[in-house]
Amino acid sequence: MRKGIHPDYGPVVFRDRAANYAFLTRSTMTSDKTIEWEDGNTYPVVDVEISDVSHPFYTGTARVLDTAGRVERFERRYGKRS
Q1: Can you tell me the distance from the alpha carbon of 65 to that of 80, in angstroms, rounded to the nearest whole number?
Q2: pTM to 2 decimals?
Q3: Which residues, 6 or more positions from 63, have their beta carbon under 8 angstroms from its beta carbon?
Q4: Cβ contacts of 57 within 8 Å, gap of 6 or more
Q5: Which terminal CB of the chain, N or C, has fewer other CB atoms within 10 Å?
Q6: Is 72 strand, coil or helix?
């Protein structure tokens, strides 16, 4: 990599506020907020709205939409196209 054109890549804690879950990884994201991690070190923390812990797809609570029923209901209401 060329020097001086890439952002710093270092440890960052991502915290899912919805599930009260945090994980330490490496990233180029930065934050003014910090958190003391389990190892005793202080790392920048980035709050996220949703992660794999709280996302409905990963938790198994995703709803499957009945698209066939919607099409049939539309056709009943407005008639089929000729």
Answers
A1: 22
A2: 0.62
A3: 56
A4: none
A5: C
A6: helix
Cβ–Cβ under 8 Å, residues 53 and 19: yes
- pLDDT tens for each residue of the chain, 82 residues long: 678 898 889 999 999 888 888 999 999 998 999 999 999 999 999 998 877 677 656 556 656 666 667 778 788 888 877 6
Contacts of 46 (CB under 8 A, 6+ apart): 12, 13, 14, 15, 27, 29, 31
Q: Is the CB of residue 28 less than 8 Å from the CB of residue 47?
A: no
> How far from 26 is each of 4, 10, 29, 43, 58, CA to CA, in Å?
19, 5, 9, 11, 22
How many angstroms separate the CA atoms of 37 and 15, rounded? 11
Q: Beta-carbon neighbour count of residue 46 at 10 Å? A: 16
